[in-house]
Design goal:
The complex is a heterodimer of chains A (234) and B (308). Helices cover 38% and strands 26% of the residues of chain A. With 234 residues, chain A is α/β, with parallel strands linked by helices. In chain A, the strands form 2 sheets. In chain A, strands 6-7-8-3-9-10 form a 6-stranded mixed β-sheet, sandwiched between helices. In chain A, helix 3 packs parallel to helix 7. The longest helix of chain A has 16 residues. With 308 residues, chain B is an all-alpha fold. Helices cover 76% and strands 2% of the residues of chain B. Chain B has 13 helices and 2 strands, in the order H-H-H-H-E-H-E-H-H-H-H-H-H-H-H. A two-stranded antiparallel sheet of chain B has the order 1-2. The N and C termini of chain B lie far apart (45 Å). Classes of the chains: A alpha/beta (234), B mainly alpha (308). The interface between A and B is medium-sized, with 29 and 23 residues.
Chain lengths: 234, 308
């Protein structure tokens, strides 16, 4: 579904991503793990078109998307749940959800999708008229997930969904991601919380200083010696 | 004593009416500030353009200034969109030593508008002598034995009312339509808005257009109670700037409250210190806001709502 072919990404003159290639197949949960600063968020931001690759290609359903205006990507079926949630804090929960469904088919089916999101994340229904900034951390993450779902994505990308959450909430977030995947959405997760992520992922990639150093199934990576010592502290 | 109370209340009323109109000027500037992160220093000059539109419609075709709102606001909207698209946007893309080239550009746009108006319309003072210019309602008309006398000027009240209507319409637009929500979202987080599929470039142009339309509307409401000359813009740019700072950079609610505060404060200084002191009052409030309330009225509102 999503193919990244040999991309280089630079911030100004500083290269942060070096020839990264990977793919996400339909219905999969793919994890990209790595330490802080390895370039994980950069890759997601490049897929979303906020950054542009200097070299290489990004294909979505076989078509190149790395030259398209970033605001057109939601319509193609890519939702990006950004790092630190990036909600519109001075808008209500419901308005945030509306923002997730501005274009095309998603706009037409807004109310239906909203009902579905409220079904999946009932806390959001209770707080629909509240300002997003007044929600707790866990609720904010749920809202970010729900806002992504509003665009009826084929592929939903999560940037550090467990960031700043209590362990119990982290489990809830991953449980929700699994549920979303069960309903047919392909998922790409970028995480520092390696254990939880690899537990839910079908396949994973390890990113170190801008290069992919390892790949394999979630289980295989969890058992890998290098991953164990470097990321799991075992 | 009664005379003192009467003077105070009368000043308060006219300050409040003036504040409503100021709020409309400030709203446009705050919207632009919120979405584009620049202070539009051509704001008052755009208002001047709208006032000339209203003036000529009145002089040539006897169209009431309040009706020219319907002509001037769309006209100013397109002028604003055009200025943003063809002048400001290209400059925003250029990386330069001065980070706020766009702000300097708006100063230039303002100068050109003011000077073009001088070239075409001369620097004569003009006004629209409407038939109801001196009509007013008095408290004693309604309450025979009132201990004090207060008056309410008809054109001032009408202008205030129209400003309130425009403000309410703007509120509906910003909270109930997707375009309005997208504008607010862009002001809060540009990257997140982009990820939601908001065409940020179009939103910038639309916002500049709306900001210009709002101040254009304000111009039409001002001309029945004010006079017009080409360089009047600077004064109202100042007003808008002070309101934007007082309200909290980019906050629309803050701009409304800031506008009313400024209107009342100016009215008070004019009454108790003399007409010439009104600008001093304006800058006093500006400095006070920067020193004591750097986040503006919006920071108080935010604290109440978000608890931080």
């Amino acid at each position: 579904m999503l193919e990244i072919k040999n991309i280089d990404v630079l911030y100004g003159d500083v290269q942060v991503i070096w020839g990264v290639s990977f793919e996400v197949k339909a219905k999969e949960i793919v994890a990209m793990i790595g330490a802080n600063g390895a370039g994980k968020s950069t890759i997601l931001r490049t897929i979303s078109g906020i950054l542009r690759p200097k070299m290489g290609e990004i294909l979505f359903e076989g078509k190149p998307i790395y030259k398209i205006d970033p605001f057109k990507l939601t319509e193609l079926g890519i939702a990006h749940v950004p790092e630190a949630r990036r909600l519109f804090v001075e808008m209500t929960v419901e308005e945030n959800l509306d923002m997730g469904s501005l274009r095309g088919e998603a706009r037409v089916r807004r109310e239906k999708t909203k009902a579905m999101v409220f079904e999946l994340l009932p806390r959001l229904r209770e707080r629909r008229r509240q300002l997003a900034g007044t929600l707790s951390g866990g609720e904010q993450q749920m809202l970010a997930v729900g806002r992504g779902l509003m665009s009826l994505p084929k592929l939903q990308m999560f940037d550090e969904p467990s960031l700043g959450l209590a362990p119990l909430l982290v489990r809830e977030v991953f449980h929700t991601i699994r549920k979303i995947n069960g309903e047919g959405t392909t998922v790409l997760i970028v995480e520092q919380n390696v254990k939880q992520t690899l537990l839910v992922a079908d396949r994973g990639y390890v990113l170190e200083t801008g290069k992919i150093t390892q790949q394999g199934t979630g289980q295989a990576l969890l058992g890998d010696e290098h991953v164990k010592t470097a990321y799991l502290g075992v | 004593m009664a005379a003192q109370v009467e003077l105070f209340l009368q000043t308060l009323i006219s300050g409040f009416l003036l504040g409503g109109l100021y709020a409309l000027i400030g709203l446009g500037m705050a919207l632009i500030m919120g979405v584009m992160r620049i202070i539009n220093l051509a704001h008052g000059d755009l208002m001047m353009v709208a006032m000339y539109v209203a003036y000529w419609l009145f002089t040539l075709f006897h169209i009431d200034p309040y009706l020219s709102v319907f002509v001037a606001t769309p006209l100013l909207f397109f002028l604003g969109v055009g200025l943003q698209k063809f002048l400001i946007n290209p400059v925003m893309k250029v990386e330069s030593i001065l980070p706020h080239n766009q702000v300097i550009l708006t100063v230039g746009i303002g100068m050109i508008l003011a000077n073009l108006a001088t070239v075409f319309f001369t620097s004569n003072y003009r006004s629209t002598p409407v038939s109801y210019a001196s009509k007013a309602w008095y408290l004693t008309d309604f309450w025979k034995n009132a201990p004090i006398e207060l008056s309410l000027s008809a054109p001032w009240s009408l202008s205030f009312l129209a400003a309130v209507i425009i403000t309410v319409a703007l509120w509906f637009f910003l909270t109930k339509t997707d375009t309005g929500k997208s504008i607010r979202a862009t002001a809060q987080d540009i990257d997140a808005a982009l990820l939601m599929g908001v065409n940020v470039g179009v939103m910038r142009a639309v916002t500049f257009g709306i900001g210009a339309a709002l101040v254009g509307g304000a111009g039409c409401l001002f001309i029945p109670i004010y006079y017009l000359y080409p360089s009047l813009g600077k004064q109202f740019t100042n007003v808008g700037f002070v309101i934007t700072v007082l309200g909290g950079m980019g906050s629309t609610e803050g701009a409304i409250i800031g506008g009313v505060i400024l209107g009342i404060f100016e009215s008070m200084t004019a009454t108790y210190l003399g007409m010439g002191w009104a600008p001093v009052g304006r800058f006093l409030i500006f400095v006070a806001a920067l020193v004591f309330l750097p986040g503006g009225v919006a920071s108080i509102l935010r604290k109440q709502r978000l608890g931080k």
